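Worked example

This section walks through a single chain of length 306. The input is the sequence exactly as stored; nothing has been trimmed or padded.
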Amino acid sequence: MRHLITPLDFSVEETEALLDRADDIAANPKAYASCCVGKKLATLFYEPSTRTRLSFEAAMLNLGGSVLGFASADTSSASKGESVADTIRVISCYADICAMRHPKEGAPLVASLYSKIPVINAGDGGHQHPTQTLTDLMTIRAKKGSLSGITVGLCGDLKFGRTVHSLIMSLSRYTGIRFVLISPKELRLPGYVLQEAIVKKGLPYQEAATIEEVMPQLDILYMTRVQRERFFNEEDYIRLKDSYILDKRKMAFAKPDLCVLHPLPRVNEIAPEVDDDPRAAYFEQVQNGVYVRMALILKLLEVEPC
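Given that input, the structure is written out below as tokens.
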């Protein structure tokens, strides 16, 4: 039995195979419509979520399976003090696989140590979000034809952005990757991510204060929101929340084949006027999330297409 807690739990070869399967699902969805009949997915979401939770549910339903779970810690026994270890022991009696989102870093890892079913990390605090990374990789590969030889700009909240951390860790395993880190000094990439995923591997990177100064060199621009829920001080959040806003004026500096991604939800960091730009791929990214999670469920349950 395997779990997915960080994107590094899968080798590059396994990741590529999973993305290939996701591509096939996108092209032939009917071929997978009954693969998980009789299987149950539990969604254990201790934090609010729209895309990730519904994407997992849609993925399992598309495979012919069923879904159970909770969408808030307040509606679970966590509100009574139940531990993650006990919760997963119980859920293991009800479901075949589970996806867990939790505000505390490491909670899905703890769950995996006590679980009798595969555990998928659907986001743990400011730490990791491996299924969003798989979604990002699928979208980048579709747009660029490869995950190698690209310059990736990551903009906004790089300190608390778990999607950023996971994406950097995963992309750093490919050749010819260059990172451009765009953030205010208060929201810089954590030192442990910078050292482990970039510096120790000798990958080229640049830190920038504005989008405009680096936009012409980017193949991918990964925008992120400043996450209010990660701040202890409301004044700091208000001061930093609109540090970067992508609009038509800034897009004019970009390559014709730039790909703009965003894990969503967005607040103000991408102006609605950018949505109609053919380089905006964040809603396509959302659709890819369903295909990737379908492929992941099949892999962890060791189910082959019908």
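What to look for: DSSP finds ten helices and nine strands in the chain.
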